[in-house]
UniProtKB/TrEMBL annotation:
<dbReference type="InterPro" id="IPR000182">
    <property type="entry name" value="GNAT_dom"/>
</dbReference>
<protein>
    <submittedName>
        <fullName>GNAT family N-acetyltransferase</fullName>
    </submittedName>
</protein>
<dbReference type="GO" id="GO:0016747">
    <property type="term" value="F:acyltransferase activity, transferring groups other than amino-acyl groups"/>
</dbReference>
<feature type="domain" description="N-acetyltransferase">
    <location>
        <begin position="14"/>
        <end position="167"/>
    </location>
</feature>
<dbReference type="InterPro" id="IPR016181">
    <property type="entry name" value="Acyl_CoA_acyltransferase"/>
</dbReference>
<keyword id="KW-0808">Transferase</keyword>
<dbReference type="Pfam" id="PF00583">
    <property type="entry name" value="Acetyltransf_1"/>
</dbReference>
Amino acid sequence: MDFIFKRVEIKDKNIVLNLFKETAEKINKLNVDHWQYWKNPAQEQINWVMDGIQNKEFFFIYDLQEEEWFGMVRILKEDLMYWGKQDEKAIYVHSLVVKEKYNGKGIGIKILAKIASNAKNDHCKYLRLDADSKNPKLCSYYEKIGFKKVGVKALSLSAFNLYEKAL
């Protein structure tokens, strides 16, 4: 699959919020208590999305062959909320979601590999992300594809495992 990252614009806010809601519903069907706040997001979550869009950090993942977007990701150069101030140059991944019909096809690995390649070309030392500790399947997935758990960050919504992969 050949895909690109297309920057999300302000006009796309409701698409982003709906994608979060659809993903929360999909996760709920798996009996995982993760991201359920996206079903009816508080103003704090909506502001987080708006900040990310305004800071040009949200991207749709666009399938060039099918000519449609099939996912979304937030890519940051700094993540003070989860990681605090860091000395090493890194790229931080948040909110990687893929539409349900694309699940189970290895696309998440390809997306993370493309982000890692871009980060390495930008002289980053690490690719970093977090996963809700209440979602052991997701945590295990990241560990299986080479991410190392390096800490835990407790926030009001949950406790999040912090993962990094050396580039």
